[in-house]
Each structure stands twice: as structure tokens, then as C-alpha cells.
Amino acid sequence: MTKLLVMPASLDIDDVIEQADAFLFGYQDMSMNFLVTIEMEYIQSILPKLKSKRKQLFVALNKNFHNSELPKLKKIMQELAQLSIDGIFYYDVAVVQLKKEANIDLPLIWGAEHLTTNYATMNYWNTFGVDMVYVSGEITKQEILEIYSQTKMPLIVPIFGYLPMFVSERHEVKNYLNYFHIQDNSKIYYMEKEGKRYPLVDNKQGTFVYSSHILNGYAEYLEFKKIGIDYVLLNESFIPRKKFIQILEQFIEENGTDEQIDFLCDHNTNKGFLYKETVYQVKHYEN
Questions:
Q1: Would you list the DSSP string of 123-142?
Q2: pLDDT score recorded for residue 113
Q3: Does 91 score more than 80 pLDDT?
Q4: Distance between CA atoms of 149 and 144, rounded to whole angstroms?
Q5: 17-69: per-residue pLDDT in tens?
Q6: d(CA 4, CA 9)
Q7: For residues 155 and 148, is the Cβ–Cβ distance under 8 A?
Q8: What H or E segment, with its residue span, contains residue 80?
């Protein structure tokens, strides 16, 4: 059965806990591309409720770590293992090494968003004890199906929501505001270019830019469910909770259409890269 993994935009999940099969949160100061992050106290408080309802909990430790952060990372991993969460998303291979060195019993999900694009590398990491893969949102449906047929690892496929496009450790927005002496403490900013509007976030981890349109893979979800893909991810970021619940219910009931999802998203959806191949071309220079 394909499970619905929800990435909430709020710590209050009471009104979506019944609809989702699993939840993904970023850990404070140890994760990227999350509007809200959590700490151990929140995990300890929410985990009994999730387990009582047979819901899963995943935590992201998906950033590049400096050497000075490794002791803290190790401690967090050990504590999460003691709590028996269902797995951690990682980017930095230090996570894999720490699990091995400290013998930490914790499922690992390779979640390097822009790098998880082929089954050969996925199978390689599987030999090092990685348990699952969060598939890149920048590959086609056909490539996802090929990966599914060529790896034994469970897959998590992004199917709905804004996609992360760009990250910088520099505070691009705040530096701009400071330079021009502009007072603006918004949590979300927007950049307009060529008629498109891109959400931006500038927080302690840096600057993050997201896609202008919401990925709407509802029809593809129905196909993925038929073949048994393990998880699909629905990202609530920048989407009002009431609308997100309506969209989530469409996925649960499976009687909707792409057009209905698009209507709920104010006609701001597209298929992302599901039918758009990435082609690298070498530019020819004239002598």
C-alpha cells in the first residue's frame, strides 16, 4: 500500500493526523527546506500519539555539517534511535559514517534532493546500510518507474507541493534589506521574474528559493499506487491548511482529478519535471 507522507507547515497536526500515514519534520538547526522545525521535546510529546494511531514519524537531518556540529549530530541520532522513530532523512554522508561508528540502530533515508536521480547510486548506498531513498523532484515519471524496477529499496516520491530550487548559506534577502535600510521581518518573501512568482525563505540556515508552481502529481499518484511505490510526499509549505486538508482528502478518497487539485490551488499547479527531461548540451563556440 502506498503511504501518504505529509510534510506539515505547522507543529499542530491534530487536524491532519487521521488523513496522513506518516509525517516528516526537520530538526531545528540541523535541516534544510523546512518552514517549521522541531526539537527532541516535541518529538517526545508527539510520538506516543502517533504510535497509538499507527502513524510513522520521520525526522530530517539533511544539511551539510561542519566538524564542530558532529558531536551534536551524534547525540541527536542516538536519542532518536532510543525513541524508535521510523527513520531520518540525511544529506551529508557523515550521518552514514556516524551510524556505523557508533552502532546507532536507526533507519536512514538518502534525501539529497537534487542528487537522488539514478538507481545505481541508490543501490551503492544500500550496500552501506541506507534503507530508503527520497527520490529527486527533478526527474521524469519514466525515470522514477525505471528506478523502482531496478532497486529493492523503498522509495519516497514527491508528488505534491512547492519544490526546492536553490539554497545558499548567505542571507541574500536580509543582506538586500539591510543594504537598502528596508524594515521587513516577513517569514516568506516573493521574487517575480518573467511573469512567475517564486517563494523565498531567509532563515538561520540561509536563503531558500522554491518553484513558482505547485507540483500536482495526483494522476501519477494513482499510477504509482497501482504498482506499489512505497510512499508519496505531500508538502504543505506555503499552502493554507484548510486547502491542504481538502487536497489531502482528494488523495485519500481517490475520486478526484488533476483539475480539482488545480482549482483548490488557485490554478497554480503544473507537472514539474514529471514529463520534462533534463538535457545537458555542450555549447559550441565559433573559432
A1: HHHHTTT--EEE--TTS-HH
A2: 85
A3: yes
A4: 9
A5: 999 999 999 999 999 999 999 999 999 999 999 999 999 999 999 999 999 99
A6: 16
A7: yes
A8: helix 70-83
- Distance between CA atoms of residues 287 and 284, nearest Å: 10
Across the strands, what pairs with 27? Answer: 38
Largest CA-CA distance found in the chain, in angstroms, rounded: 70
State which amino acid sits at residue 285: Y
Confidence of residue 112 (pLDDT cuts 50, 70, 90): very high
Q: Domains in the chain, start-ordered, CATH in brackets?
A: 3-161+214-270 (3.20.20.70), 164-210 (no CATH)
- Our CA angle for 247, 248, 252, nearest 5°, is 120
pTM here is 0.94
Give the closest residue to 62 by CA, choosing from 85, 30, 39: 30
The partner residues of 215 in beta bridges, in order of sequence, read 161, 270
Contacts of 227 (CB under 8 A, 6+ apart): 145, 148
C-alpha cell at 226: 497501482
What are the φ/ψ torsions at residue 117 (nearest 5 degrees)? Answer: -120, -5
Q: Which helix (H) or strand (E) holds 61?
A: strand 56-61
- Buried b / exposed e across 156-184, counting CB within 10 Å, b at 16+? bbbbbbbbbbebeeebbbbeebeeeeeee
User: What's the one-letter identity of residue 256?
Assistant: G
Q: Is the pLDDT of residue 135 over 80?
A: yes
- Alpha-carbon span 277 to 189, nearest angstrom: 29
